[in-house]
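Review form for a predicted model. The reviewer records the input and the model, then writes brief findings.
Reviewer: anonymous (R2)
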Amino acid sequence: MRTHGAEYIRIYKPGAREIKFIKDVSKCKTPALGGLVVKCKKCKAKTYLYKSCGNAQCPKCQSIKRMQWQDKIASRTLKCPYQHIVFTLPHEMNYIANKYPELVYGILFKVAWQTIKQLCGDPDNLGALPAMTAVLHTFGSDLKHHIHLHTLVSFGGMDKDNKWQWPNRKNKLASYRKMCSMFKLKYLKEIRSELKKKDEEYYLSISSRLTSMEFVRWCVFNSQPTTHTKVIEEYLGRYICRTGVSKKKLRYDKIQDKVKLIFNDYKHQEKNKAAPQLTKTIDPLIAIGQILTHVLPANFRKVRYYGLATATMLREIGERLPHLIKQNGQTVRKIFQIIKVLNGIVEEDETGNDERTCPICGSNNLAFENLAPDKDWYDLNIRKCSIHNKSPTITSEISPNQNLLQTKNWEGIAKPKKY
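Model under review:
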C-alpha cells in the first residue's frame, strides 16, 4: 500500500471509500499519526511506538476491537451446544456482488436467518426460536472473492410457552438437503425481487445467470454441535476488524517488485490435519485491487445477531432462564488490557504480552513521551514514492478466476480482463 497505493489511485481512480482505506493503511503505525517515545532509564535506548489508523478493516491493527468483540459474543452465548453453520453463495453471484455488494450481502444475512428461523420453527425439527450470530466473510485465504456467512446457531431454543426445547435430532437442527434447498430458493427469489426494483434493465441482462444458479447445489456447511465455542469465536474474531488477509501472510518483495501471498490449500487438506500452505506471487497493483474487493460498503454491519441473541431477547430471557446465560470471565482482564494499551503501557499487538520491556537491556524501567503527528510524512514518503506509470499485466502466476482490479473510470487505460 505504501509503495504502490498512490500509483493505484492515480491510474485506476477508485471510489472515495477505497481511497480512504488505502491512505489509512499507508499511514497506520507511521510517524504520520504520531505516537509515543519509550525511553529506557537504564540504558537510555529509545523505542518509537506509532498510533494505529483505526480503520475498521485495516489488516495491521484493531486487535483491541477484536478482543472486545470476542468478549461481546461470549456474553451473548448461552450455556448450551452451538452449531457452526456456513452459508456460501455460488461464485456466479460474484458478478452481481461487484455491482451491488450491499444488496447481495444484505440479502445473504436476511435469507440465512429466514432459513434457520423457518426450519427451527417446525415442530419436527425444533419447534422453537434459536439464537444466531452471523459474521460475513467475502474472501478465501487466497484473496479470491468467496462470499459466505459464518453463523453460530444455538442447538436449542425457546418455544411460545417460554420453555426451552432441544432438537429432535442428535447432531443437526434440520435436514441438510432441506436447508440447502430452502436457502437457494429464498435467496434467488429475494435477489430477483430486489434487482427488479433497483435496476430492471440490469436484471434483464443477468436473468439467465440467475436461472443457471437454480440448477447448482448451494453449499450450507453444518458442523457437529459443540459446547466448546471459544475456538470458533476466536477464528471469527480474527476477521471482525480486518479485510481479506492479515499482514503475516502478505509480503512485499522490494527487489522483484512483487507481492507474495501465503494461503491455505484446502483442496489438498487431509482429514483432521491443518491445510498445507502455498505461496503465490502477484503484481502489487493487482494485489491492491484484490484487497479492495473486500472493503465493505459504508456503514455496512458485517456482524449481526438474531433470535435469542438480540439485545432485546437477551434482556427478556435473562429473567426467565438465568441459568442459560453464560457468564463472561474474560471481561475484567481484557478491560485492563485495553486501558493499558490506551495509556501507552503496552503496544497494541496480538502477542498477549501484558508488559513492555526495553528491547536492548530488557529493563521495565521505562518513561513515555508523546510524539506529535508528522504532517509532512505522508507527502514525502507515500505520495511521491510511486514511480511506476503502467497498468499491471496478468501473468501465469495469477489464477484466471481471481477477481482483479475494479474501478469505474479507466480513462483509456488497458483494464485487466475480469473472469
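Findings: The domain at 63-242+294-334 is CATH 3.40.1310 (Replication Protein E1; Chain: A,).
Further findings: Residues 176-198 form the longest helix (23 residues).
Recommendation: see findings above.
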